[in-house]
Write a structure and sequence with these properties.
With 308 residues, this protein is mostly beta strands. The model has no long low-confidence stretch (mean pLDDT 88). Strands 2, 5, 8, 9, 10, 11, 12, 13 and 14 form a nine-stranded mixed β-sheet that branches. A five-stranded mixed β-sheet has the order 6-4-1-3-7. Strands 15-18-22 form a three-stranded antiparallel β-sheet. A hairpin with a 7-residue loop joins β11 and β12. It is built from four helices and 23 strands. The protein has three domains: 85 residues, RNA Polymerase Alpha Subunit, Chain A, domain 2 (Beta Complex); 91 residues, RNA Polymerase Alpha Subunit, Chain A, domain 2 (Beta Complex); 89 residues, Beta Complex (RNA Polymerase Alpha Subunit, Chain A, domain 2).
């Protein structure tokens, strides 16, 4: 019988002991810890023909246990609470949230979920046709007014919880701006609903047409003096007639705000030398009305050299 020599292969034995000690140090140093996390709540098997009366919670709180190294590697979406709704019916329903309903990576133990119970109120899904109301902002150019507004299509089908559908009276559109418009404005815009629980079915855009026309009301501002613009050096000017009447058109409110002093007719003398001229009368732009006519439309202007 051969004697066993204890110091045989001493190097390999020492290496094995070193590896064992190193593994023990790694395992002993990686302590088990608990950590609280907020994780997404995923709803599965949502029953057809039912709607949630209120927005469900997007997140729930869980406590997890594992090694500090494992938990440090957990990223967003690695842990998800899953709720199966296939058995849901109309009315108020209670659903339990247990650690077994939480998906977690290997090495992560879920020890608690909060809240442990989630309450949902389910309603039957309803469908309804609603008229579309166009949303318009701004004012047309001075002297113009807003006429009829049309929407194509005029109706839209909506769906959602039965109680919210019953209360809905109209759908709306994105805002159509008509600032400074002098002609009809047509835009394709998105249809929306003010209640976030409701959804638009089918067509989601509509063509909104806003008629813009000249104001139907008129006012004559009489005997406004004609100004002479850009008279050349060493010239004098004599105009006839000195005053004109100005017909303005606009909305009732705009014409009521208009002062006679705001109406400022003029003729342009730029570049003209001595002589007789028949010049068109212009009027500075008005804030609340549109100039429809000037009477007379032209005036006689004589330009003569200044006598030294």
């Amino acid at each position: 019988m051969r004697a066993i020599w204890p110091f045989r292969h001493l190097g390999l034995k020492a290496l094995s002991i070193g590896i064992a000690v190193l593994l023990w140090m790694v395992i002993a140093g990686d302590q088990t810890v608990e950590r609280g996390l907020r994780v997404p709540l995923e709803l599965q098997q949502f029953p057809t023909g039912l709607e949630l009366q209120a927005e469900p919670p997007a997140l729930v709180d869980v406590r997890v246990r594992g090694s500090s190294d494992t938990l440090s590697r957990v990223g967003p979406g690695d842990i998800v609470a899953v709720l199966d709704l296939r058995a849901a019916r109309a009315g108020q329903r209670f659903f339990q949230l247990t650690p077994e309903q939480v998906r977690a990576p290997f090495g992560v133990e879920v020890v608690q979920v909060a809240p442990p119970t989630v309450v949902f109120v389910f309603e039957p899904t309803a469908v309804k046709q609603l008229p579309i109301r166009p949303s318009v902002e701004g004012d047309p150019a001075p002297g113009y007014v807003v006429g009829a507004m049309t929407v194509d299509p005029p109706m839209v089908e909506i769906t959602g919880p039965e109680s919210a559908v019953k209360q809905a009276t109209e759908a709306v559109t994105e805002t159509v701006a008509i600032n400074g418009a002098v002609s009809d404005v047509t835009e394709n815009v998105t249809i929306g609903l003010l209640d976030p629980a409701l959804r638009v079915k089918g067509v989601r855009t509509a063509a909104v047409k806003v008629q813009v026309r000249l104001g139907s009301r008129e006012r004559t501002v009489r005997d406004r003096p004609v100004r002479l613009h850009d008279l050349g050096a060493n010239l004098t000017a004599h105009a006839s007639p000195l005053d004109v009447d100005v017909l303005v058109r606009g909305s009732r409110e705009g014409l009521a705000r208009l002062n006679a002093e705001d109406v400022m007719p003029f003729v342009d003398l730029k570049g003209l030398g001595a002589g007789d001229y028949a010049l068109a009368v212009h009027v500075d732009a008005l804030a609340d009305a549109n100039v429809a006519r000037v009477a007379p439309e032209t005036i006689h202007v004589r330009l003569t050299p200044v006598k030294e």
